[in-house]
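Following up on my earlier thread - several people asked me to post the actual chain instead of describing it. Fair enough. Here it is, all 172 residues.
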Amino acid sequence: MNAFLTVIPLLLIRYGLLSILNREGLKRAAFFTPMIGKEKLAYSLYQISNILIFVYLCFLKITTNTYFLYAGLMIYGLGILLCIGSILNFAEPNQYGITDKGLYGLSRNPMYVAYFIYFLGCVLLTKSLVLLAILIVFQISAHWIILSEERWCISKFGDTYLNYMQKVRRYF
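Reply from S.P.:
Thanks for posting it. Predicted structure:
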């Protein structure tokens, strides 16, 4: 089976579900904060690696090796569940404009974590070391984007966001 099929649920969740739940949420999710310095390079690497993941999956097949198949399906399934949960929570920010309920009460960035787990499942399903290398670049660059988002949130939301940062970890 072609591995590009693994991307369809992500697209449906990220764009379809979020647009049904909250069109403004879709706009918020598509917004990237202004980047400075090395963040601009991270943003470029993030976008390139994102595209490479999608394109490279078009050329891969899902493995039938039992261990990789079952491990990949479990991690991929967890990624799907985390994507759904983070999108459901993201669609309903609090009165200050910050999403802090559900998975966002455990992690300030559950969507990024979900994407990593989701694509890690794809790596195991395809047994592709090249896809793993692209995913590592994707995740490292995502970390820099997260740092820029935190800086922007502090400037926009002030003490409300700083209090949220003290209560909730960046990742799980």
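Helices lie at 8-21, 23-30, 38-57, 66-90, 110-126, 129-157, 159-167. That should answer part of your original question.
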